[in-house]
Each structure stands twice: as structure tokens, then as C-alpha cells.
């Protein structure tokens, strides 16, 4: 008999998304275990962002199901999923540049949890969580600066802080190292490592050395489907992955 421990944190069954004539995600069965880092890799247009948009609730699937801790969440809106712990960052940094760093974090909590916020958190705890999130990413000294004045690498850290303030159980990061310098990439890598001790992380990432360093398991997507899946050492050896993704 299946026990509670056998239930994955997140599971998709036959998850599909069609945009007009294009099937961006094709019958994806994904199973995420608790407190691991799962990387999703694959060429541009493979359907990675679309898949995580379906999981976070930003998009509705054309067909298929999504289960979170064994509960069917396929039809729940994004803010409900956020309040249950499914939190994402955008592939493109989305901040209010003229608000302060701290205000951006507070606002992110308020916007993403919607009206439910009053039930779950009062203003003081939103502030406390926002401060804690900024400390986690190392931006506490920049809290009162205008977000738009931050260097790009710090804006990406702020983006992650905005997600952390929501106390994620499942944190979805869509290309967090895109456009960063080597030093900044190292910062993000260290942060993800630290967070993964008590948060499950779904990481879309093009930088293969970051993937190899962080991922417990890799899912390779191509053309809307899962092409390969396994621990980094195995996926690295897969000839199909080498030809399609790594260009070898
Ligand atoms: N809102 C949309 N409307 C129509 N087509 C879309 C939409 N969003 C994505 N697509 C298409 O779906 C396919 C998958 O896109 P998606 O953004 O999921 O890929 P990706 O793997 O995240 O790529 P990248 O690595 O470039 O971020 C692409 O062909 C894209 O053009
Ligand atoms: Mg993408």
C-alpha cells in the first residue's frame, strides 16, 4: 500500500499546452521529490517556461493534471498555489524600478498572495518576512535604495528575495543566472545550494556547469516533451542529449 512518503511533492500527468497551432508542452509526466534540486534543461523553445507556467498557475493547461502533495491543483489560480507554497521567479526581471528594494519585496508578497494575505499574514509579519528574505540573498544593506538603481545582478537577487518572502515550499527559478557575470553566478549558485536544504527547487538553467553543480536530477526537454531524465552523471553521457542540447 502507498504511504504518505510515497506521494511526490509535485506530479504532473499528461500535462499539455497548445498555443493556437503549436503544442508547446506535450503530455509531460514530471515527478518532483521533496527537498531536491531538479534542473530542467533544453534548447530555446523546448517548452521549459511554458511547463513551469502551468505548474505555477500562470497558464491553464489544454489537458492533463497537476498534483501537489497528492492534491489536484490543476484548476487553482496562481495566488492560491502561491499561498500553498508554489512560488516562481520570472525569466525576465520584473521590478518596480522607482520603488525601494524593500517596497518591491513587500509588494510582491501582497500581489502574489492576493486577498488571502490577510488571512495568513498580518502587515508586521509581511515586513519581517521581507527583511528576512533580503538578508537571505544578502541585500539587507540595499533595502532603502531604489530598485532600478541596483546593478543587474542584484536585481536578480532581489527577484529571488521577492519569491523567498512568500516562504516557498517549491521554488521555481527560471534562468536565474541569465546575463550575470561569473562572480554573480557563483553567488546565485551558493544561494540555491543553501536554499535547497529545506526548499524543493525547480531550476530552469542554460549554464551547464551550474546545472551539474546544483542538480540532483536533470530533466531534458526538447520540442515540448521530456527527452531524458536522470542524475547529472547519466544525463551527461546520453548521446541524444549531447547532440540536441550540448551541441556535441
Ligand atoms: N503565450 C504564447 N503564445 C504563443 N506561443 C507561445 C507562448 N509562449 C510560448 N510560446 C511558444 O511555445 C514554445 C515554447 O516556449 P517556451 O517559452 O516555453 O520555451 P523555453 O524552453 O522556455 O525557451 P527559452 O529557453 O528560450 O526560454 C515556443 O515555440 C514559443 O514560441
Ligand atoms: Mg524559457
Q: What is the secondary structure topology, with strand pairs?
A:
Blueprint: E1 10-19, E2 22-32, E3 37-41, H1 48-56, E4 63-68, E5 71-72, H2 78-84, E6 86-88, H3 101-113, H4 117-120, H5 123-137, H6 152-164, E7 170-174, H7 182-195, E8 200-204, H8 208-214, E9 217-222, E10 225-230, H9 232-237, H10 239-246
Helix pairs in contact: 3-5, 3-6, 5-6
Bound molecules: adenosine-5'-triphosphate (ATP) and magnesium ion.
Essential attributes:
alpha/beta; binds adenosine-5'-triphosphate; four-stranded antiparallel sheet; 10 helices; six-stranded mixed sheet; binds magnesium ion; Rossmann fold; 248 residues
According to DSSP, the number of beta strands is 10
Bound molecules: adenosine-5'-triphosphate, magnesium ion
**Proportion of residues in helical segments:** 25-40%
Task: Please state the overall shape, judged from the principal axes of the Cα atoms.
Answer: globular
Write down the CATH topology of the domain at 1-82 and 207-248.
Rossmann fold
**Protein structure class:** alpha/beta
Distance N to C terminus: 45 Å
What's the name of the CATH homologous superfamily of the domain at 1-82 and 207-248?
Answer: P-loop containing nucleotide triphosphate hydrolases
Walk across the major sheet and give the strand order: 6-7-8-3-9-10
CATH C-level class of the domain at 1-82 and 207-248 is: Alpha Beta
CATH-level-2 architecture of the domain at 1-82 and 207-248: 3-Layer(aba) Sandwich
Q: Determine Rg (CA atoms, Å).
A: 18 Å
Give, in order, the helices and strands: EEEHEEHEHHHHEHEHEEHH
Low-confidence stretches: none
The percent range for strand residues is 15-25%
The mean pLDDT is 90
Number of helices: 10
The description of the largest β-sheet is: 6 strands, mixed
Amino acid at each position: 500500500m502507498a504511504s504518505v512518503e510515497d506521494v511526490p511533492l509535485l506530479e504532473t500527468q499528461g500535462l499539455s499546452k497548445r498555443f493556437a497551432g503549436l503544442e508547446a508542452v506535450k503530455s509531460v509526466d514530471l515527478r518532483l521529490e521533496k527537498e531536491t534540486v531538479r534542473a530542467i534543461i533544453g534548447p530555446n523553445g523546448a517548452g521549459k517556461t511554458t511547463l513551469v507556467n502551468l505548474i505555477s498557475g500562470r497558464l491553464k493547461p489544454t489537458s492533463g493534471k497537476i498534483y501537489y502533495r497528492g492534491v489536484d491543483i490543476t484548476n487553482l489560480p496562481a495566488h492560491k498555489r502561491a499561498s500553498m507554497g508554489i512560488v516562481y521567479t520570472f525569466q525576465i526581471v520584473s521590478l518596480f524600478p522607482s520603488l525601494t528594494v524593500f517596497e518591491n519585496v513587500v509588494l510582491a508578497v501582497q500581489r502574489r498572495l492576493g486577498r488571502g494575505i490577510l488571512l495568513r499574514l498580518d502587515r508586521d509579519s509581511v515586513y519581517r518576512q521581507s527583511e528576512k528574505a533580503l538578508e537571505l540573498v544578502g541585500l539587507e544593506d540595499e533595502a532603502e535604495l531604489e530598485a532600478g538603481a541596483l546593478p543587474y545582478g542584484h536585481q536578480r537577487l532581489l527577484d529571488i528575495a521577492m519569491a523567498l518572502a512568500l516562504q516557498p515550499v517549491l521554488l521555481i527559478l527560471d534562468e536565474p543566472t541569465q546575463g550575470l557575470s561569473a562572480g554573480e553566478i557563483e553567488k546565485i549558485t551558493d544561494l540555491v545550494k543553501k536554499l535547497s536544504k529545506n526548499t524543493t527547487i525547480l531550476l530552469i538553467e542554460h549554464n551547464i556547469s551550474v546545472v551539474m553543480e546544483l542538480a540532483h536530477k536533470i530533466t531534458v526537454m526538447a520540442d515540448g516533451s521530456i527527452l531524458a531524465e536522470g542524475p547529472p552523471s547519466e544525463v551527461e553521457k546520453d548521446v541524444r542529449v549531447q547532440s540536441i542540447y550540448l551541441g556535441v
